[in-house]
Design brief:
This protein is an alpha+beta fold and 598 residues long. It has 4 domains: 80 residues; 87 residues; 127 residues, Prolyl oligopeptidase, N-terminal domain (Methylamine Dehydrogenase, Chain H); 254 residues, Alpha/Beta hydrolase fold, catalytic domain (Rossmann fold, 3-Layer(aba) Sandwich). The protein is 18% helix and 35% strand. It has an 8-stranded mixed beta sheet, with helices on both faces. The chain has a 4-stranded antiparallel beta sheet with strand order 1-2-3-4, with no helix packed on it. The protein is globular.
Length: 598
């Protein structure tokens, strides 16, 4: 690893990020900030002023939600185990625990309309089932209002506070909404339908009933819709040829703030809540928005939203936008080192004539005589999308003199339902063939050294690395696998029980489709892996248990294939602490320097 790349990595890791803004009722803004090493709750006072930290834990905070009285509710787990516990943060003073069941997952839901109660899910009854719960914040009194089968979410309350909206998603591209009465737990279907359609992000209308939502019912992409009382199906208000990913209604319910995914880049828009007409599309830097929060009525800065925004060349910062102004304004902008590389949006041809969308970045300057070495980075999911997001590790890879290609192979989201279905079950290896096509695309470029192309991925992307190096062993100079699945049988035996049904709908049933899953298990073809591998694993990971990494490492060690294995006892499905990111990213840079540049 070069000194320049190591020094840049340190500067990038030291650059703080702010995300997940959430207004409280008194106008203060809560958000997550990682200045002290992991994401913690910070606030900006209602009247403005310097941001200040409100929590100081070693483990990362998963979410924060503002309360009408100026306080907040947040969640955090223990060492990445995803058993989130909920905490109340008063307007002043220290937080207090609302839940204290370290074996239970508490899934955040929503704050009640009057602000005194919260809704959340909990799998206390059975690890595989997330029941609906309501808690009084002041007393801590909690009760289960509905027992449900499988994993569920509670995205909203009914406007009258007498019911919850329950979201169930048995598979990646199906989601239904039910009304659950608090009095007796009775469930009323709100979105009865045939077919695998999604109904997401409901926002109840106070006057006249009904609710706004995101849906792809009868469409290839998610759009903004309204479902009136007693209506058989939603009425679309805003249906662009892209997914609308975020929806928030203004406090007076006259406007909708939405975020549209345009080729991976987010675009904020304000819509008329009744007609869906676009009222404004304020300018903001190109990047990725993950959270939007309306300021409460009466805010001194007027009606506006706060949102986070990250890009490949800058970490997440906070911005504001108004429906009557053409531009956004930075509130807590990111401050990265200058001169970082940007993505180029491209496509490349694959084996069946399709064009695969991707992002490409090359190192600065002229290519060396033999061409640049390259790294193909594969996202997880698989129902996910690689975004032009902040990646300190990939920026350091570029500084090392290695180019990066990030494909959104078939099965990725963001390009419509039909594209996302192209890798389902028995078609799984078609997406791996898209990686071989990525290699061919790079190898044909004059500025690339076709003999020095590596591959890297995390989670399901880690499985893609193992699948690529077993299905196409002669292509890759090296591979980096972060907590990837090595054998589907052992994965299903040990993954969190709350995940099995949803994952089986995506990958295949572990009993009925056992033969298919064995064919798709890289561990059973590990004798074909010919390139060096770096494997990294969080030891509290409830999604991809450590056995998956240990198995592939042992198989390679038995054959004498070079393999490095990094484990992290205080991390789960991802590396959230700065010191752990430093350790794993430095190891990746050293590994790539040896096998792609050495």
């Amino acid at each position: 690893m070069t000194t320049d790349a190591a020094a840049l990595l340190e500067r990038l890791l030291a650059t703080p990020a702010a995300s997940a803004p959430a207004h409280a009722g008194d106008g203060r803004l809560y958000f997550l900030h990682d200045a002290e090493g992991s994401a913690q709750v910070w606030e900006i006072p209602a009247g403005g002023g310097a941001p200040r930290p409100r929590t100081r834990h070693r483990d990362a905070v998963s979410h924060v939600a503002g309360l009408p009285d100026g306080g907040a509710v947040f969640g955090r787990d223990g060492a990445g185990d995803e058993r989130v516990q909920l905490h109340h943060l008063p307007p002043q003073g220290e937080p207090r625990a609302l839940t204290a069941a370290p074996e239970v997952i508490h899934g955040w839901g929503a704050v009640s309309p009057e602000g005194g109660r919260i809704a959340y899910t909990a799998n206390a009854r059975d690890p595989a089932h997330t029941d609906a719960w309501v808690m009084d914040i002041a007393t801590g009194g909690a009760r289960c209002v509905a027992e449900v089968e499988g994993p569920h979410e509670l995205p909203a309350w009914a406007p009258d506070g007498q019911a919850l909206l329950l979201a169930s998603a048995p598979r990646s591209f199906e989601a239904s909404l039910d009304r659950v009465a608090l009095a007796d737990g009775a469930r009323t279907p709100l979105t009865p339908h045939e077919g695998d359609w999604r109904h997401l992000s409901p926002c109840g209308r106070r006057k006249g009933g009904g609710f706004w939502l995101l849906s792809d019912r009868g469409r290839d992409f998610l759009g903004v819709a309204f479902q009136g009382p007693g209506a058989a199906e939603p009425r679309f208000l805003h249906a662009p040829p892209h997914d609308v990913e975020l929806l928030q209604v203004s406090p007076d319910q006259s406007l909708l703030a939405v975020v549209v995914n345009e080729g991976g880049y987010s675009r904020l828009r304000f819509l008329d809540a009744e007609s869906g007409a676009v009222r404004a599309t304020p300018w903001h830097p190109r990047g990725v928005i993950t959270k939007v929060s309306w300021a409460p009525e009466g805010h001194p800065d007027g009606s506006h939203v706060a949102f986070d925004l990250a890009g490949f060349a800058f970490p997440s910062g906070l911005h504001r936008a108004w429906p009557d102004r053409p531009d956004s304004a930075p509130l807590l902008p990111a401050a990265p080192p200058p001169g970082l590389r940007q993505w180029e949006s491209i496509t490349y041809p694959t084996h069946d004539g399709r064009e695969i969308p991707a992002f490409l970045a090359l190192p600065e300057g002229e290519a060396p005589g033999g061409g640049w070495p390259m790294l193909v980075w594969v996202h997880g999911g698989p129902a996910a999308q690689a975004l032009p997001n902040w990646r300190p590790d990939l920026q350091a890879v570029l500084a090392l003199g290695i180019g990066v290609l990030v494909p959104n192979v078939r099965g990725s989201t963001g390009y419509g339902r039909a594209y996302a279905a192209l890798d389902d079950r028995e078609k799984r290896l078609d997406s791996v063939a898209d990686l071989a096509a990525a290699h061919a695309f790079l190898a044909a470029r004059a500025e690339v050294d076709e003999g020095r192309i590596g591959i890297m991925g995390q989670s399901y992307g880690g499985w893609m690395v193992l699948a690529a190096t077993t299905e196409y062993p002669g292509l890759w100079a090296c591979g980096v696998d972060f907590y990837g699945i090595a054998r589907w049988k052992t994965f299903f035996e040990r993954t969190g029980p709350w995940r099995i049904g949803h994952r089986a709908a995506e990958y295949g049933d572990p009993v009925r489709d056992a033969a298919l899953l064995e064919r798709l298990s890289p561990l059973l073809r590990a004798e074909r892996i010919a390139c060096p591998l770096l494997v990294a694993q969080g030891m509290t990971d409830p999604r991809v248990p450590p056995l998956e990494s240990a198995q592939i490492v042992a198989a390679l060690e038995r054959r004498g294939v070079p393999v490095e294995y990094l484990t992290f006892p205080d991390e789960g499905h991802g590396f959230t602490k700065r010191e752990n990111r430093r350790r794993v990213y430095r190891a990746v840079l050293a590994f790539l320097a040896t096998h792609l540049k050495g």
